[in-house]
Amino acid sequence: PGDQEAGELGLAAVPGRQAAFRQALEAAVHYARAVGCPRIHVMAGRVPLGTDRAAVASEMETTFIENLRYAADLLSQENMTGLVEPINNRITDPRYYLNTSQQAAAILKKVGRPNLKLQLDLFHCQIMDGNLSHNLEMYFPLIGHIQIAQVPGRHEPDSPGELNFPYIFELLESLGYTGYVGCEYAPKGDTLEGLGWLRSYWESRGLQHGGTSKAAK
Asked: Rounded CA gap, 64 and 68, in Å?
């Protein structure tokens, strides 16, 4: 994430911070190797304070592409995947550089590395674009990781909100998604109590806690 006390939230697209980005990436690889994690979120970063987004967009994209290629080459040596995540600039972070799936897909195409993927957080995607079914289908070949939270409260999937998660989970299954679904939400109360939605979902699908089939038992 860079120097968070100085207001940074990632370095990969920030001009002038290339050396710090490479140093941070090496540290991230070290930790990922130690815990056996095959994916690293390469955070784009924020538009620098006092600058106009449109005025620096081209320079930030060039920096981002160069850094992503460097990251991809380094991660390929470790058999790891780099992930880029659009973060909405309407509610969460007005200055974050990477905001939409369309922007991320265009940059990944320009980078042209197979071990760089889209980290699609459905919370951010719904706020920026909506049309989740179509977007999941369209960007599915690029997706390396999925994250979820209800909109607009960013709480548990069964909390009041805009998204129908049982439908979304079935859509992911029908598309052939076999990766993890990250629960990047803020629990309304206790964390374990907040996982009651998952137990209820498993039971609705005829599964025991842990996602194993009752029939298999």
From this structure: 6
Domains of the chain (ranges plus CATH)?
17-205 (3.20.20.150)
The residues annotated with a catalytic role in the active site are 85, 184
Could you report the per-residue pLDDT of 115-146, keeping only the tens digit for each?
A: 999 999 999 999 999 999 999 999 999 999 99
